Fold each of these.
Amino acid sequence: MQTLKLSLVRNLRDALTMREIRNECASFMTKDTGEIGVFKQIWWWFFRKDKLHLRCFLGYYTFFPVAYGIIKEEKDYVLLSGGVLQYWRGKGFGRQMFCYLIDFARVNYIKDIRLEVLKTNTAAYNLYRSLGFKKTGTRNKGAVIKMKL
Ligand SMILES: CC(C)(COP(=O)(O)OP(=O)(O)OC[C@H]1O[C@@H](n2cnc3c(N)ncnc32)[C@H](O)[C@@H]1OP(=O)(O)O)[C@@H](O)C(=O)NCCC(=O)NCCS
């Protein structure tokens, strides 16, 4: 198996790398924030990330950053999100990354673990089901499925 190495996003360079991966995954996002520009990412890194209570991770295969993951802390729960660059999908990296996010959340937060997925995103939905997430509801007229571990 090809092993994914996860590390925290610690500096602006990491944040800009995360932006590139995230932008490639933009059409799969449940919140329509579209593509994030360089200046927006810089502003976000310096002024917003702490206020939003985010932990961000990059996933490396050898030297290549191929995936990103985010844990967002809300009042009573944490929300997971992330993605893998298209070229590297289907190789087990998504599963490794979400397993890592779940373990990290379990160790660091005593809260529910939740996520949201577009109804049309079969790959992500299958992955989440196989990790033990259960559907708890929908929003946006059924277009977005809410799940909880
Ligand atoms: C969803 C995503 C993270 C999965 O990552 P991945 O590295 O491609 O997935 P993996 O190779 O680790 O496979 C894990 C499981 O996902 C599911 N899966 C992956 N690709 C799939 C596909 N094309 N069709 C159906 N199920 C699929 C399977 O259940 C698979 O388990 P299996 O290999 O035992 O069958 C990845 O496809 C991705 O980044 N998509 C775009 C961004 C995105 O959708 N992010 C999530 C937003 S909610």
Amino acid sequence: MVSAEKCLEVAIPVCYFCGRDKNQLIINKMLTPSHAKKVKEAHGKVVDYEPCDECKKLMEQGVMLISCKDNNQDYRTGKMCVVKDEAVKDIFPPEYAERALKMRAMFICDTAWTNMGLPE
Ligand SMILES: [Zn+2]
């Protein structure tokens, strides 16, 4: 017999862009151990590319520039800033700017971040 508490899990996913907890809960609808396990595994992880509420607000103001480790885009250094759309067009080559404006975010490796003089 399976105990009831192993059939229900609640998870808080993290935001792909800032890495902070999202204002969102994931709860399994199907109360089975396998569904509960899937939910448990999502806790503290990125489950989609939907920005959190705070990132959504920042993306309305401009493009989020997010610093990541030179050789690992999944590792955020914690440095972040928002650049107005017009400035993105001035700073980056057209193909990068176009992509950044569409995605509303751009990952920049740490060395480039420093070389560009972005805020530390
Ligand atoms: Zn976020």
